[in-house]
Design a protein that fits this description.
The protein has 5 helices and 2 strands. Strands 1-2 form a two-stranded antiparallel ribbon. Among the domains are: about 40 residues; about 50 residues. Helices cover about 60% and strands about 10% of the residues. It is mostly helical.
Length: about 130
């Protein structure tokens, strides 16, 4: 059989007192939860609402130093890779422009005369059979 639980409400003053006790480390969230039969989630909501030490918009991020160092190293690696990709893009643009200029000089289309074959990631250019 189900027992109907009555919904209890706590006054703002009560909640503020309990949050103050938590801030002064007189009691833990788990202890409050057991004493007053309130979920820990509800108590954390009280803390966000009534805490003097933590603003409601403030977030507390706990991160190991090693994780921070890894993140910094990864950010440096990303920056280096972006720089390399930028250089490669400049080379590709240069070669495309060079092909256009050669096409204009010889009066034909080099792309039609030569075909590119890829073998294991390496490009090999061979003349087409005409």
């Amino acid at each position: 059989m189900e027992q109907n639980k009555t919904r209890r409400t706590f006054s703002d003053v009560f909640k503020q007192e309990k949050v103050k006790m938590l801030e002064e480390r007189q009691v833990t969230v788990k202890q409050l939860s057991r004493i007053y039969e309130v979920s820990e989630t509800a108590i954390y909501k009280w803390i966000r609402k009534y805490s003097i030490k933590l603003c409601p918009s403030e977030k507390l991020v706990v991160e190991k130093e090693s994780e921070g160092a890894k993140t910094l190293a990864l950010m440096k690696q990303v920056a280096e890779l972006e720089r390399i990709v930028g250089q490669k893009q400049l080379q590709v643009d240069y070669l495309k422009k060079l092909i256009e200029l050669i096409d204009q000089e010889i009066g034909g289309d080099m792309k039609k005369k030569f075909e590119s074959e890829l073998s294991h990631g390496l490009g090999q250019v061979k003349p087409t059979k005409e």
